[in-house]
């Protein structure tokens, strides 16, 4: 069992990713509005640093979305990762986002869907 986290800077892809998650067996996810540290510093009261950050970041997206979900089946996890890669392309490019998974030992409060194994 794993938790998949996606920090999505290209928020216009959110609905398509969520729709495809359902298609591959992801039964639920939580979406949180977020802001990266660079964006927060750019908007802060440090004019020299803020100006430097604005020059360094060509992608002017002050906010992003964090999607996370707990997935029991490794095949579903692999399919969900493939969904994200298909929608976002090369995640090593600046400004696209960040995705990672972590093992989950226990879950409390999870109501499994009827069709879950």
From TrEMBL:
Pfam families: P-II
Recorded superkingdom: Bacteria
GO biological process: regulation of nitrogen utilization
Gene Ontology MF annotations: enzyme regulator activity
InterPro entries, A to Z: N-reg_PII, N-reg_PII-like_a/b, N-reg_PII/ATP_PRibTrfase_C
Protein name in UniProt: Nitrogen regulatory protein P-II
Gene source species: Falseniella ignava CCUG 37419
Source species taxonomy: Bacteria, Bacillati, Bacillota, Bacilli, Lactobacillales
């Amino acid at each position: 069992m794993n938790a998949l986290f996606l920090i999505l800077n290209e928020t216009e892809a959110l609905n398509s990713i969520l729709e495809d998650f359902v298609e591959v067996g992801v039964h639920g996810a939580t979406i949180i509005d977020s802001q990266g540290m660079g964006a927060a510093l750019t908007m802060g009261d440090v004019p020299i640093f803020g100006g430097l950050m604005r020059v360094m970041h060509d992608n002017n997206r002050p906010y992003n979305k964090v999607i996370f979900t707990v997935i029991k089946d490794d095949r579903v996890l692999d399919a969900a990762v493939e969904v994200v890669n298909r929608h976002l392309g090369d995640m090593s490019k600046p400004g696209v986002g960040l995705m990672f998974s972590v093992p989950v030992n226990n879950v409390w409060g999870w109501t499994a869907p009827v069709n879950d194994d």
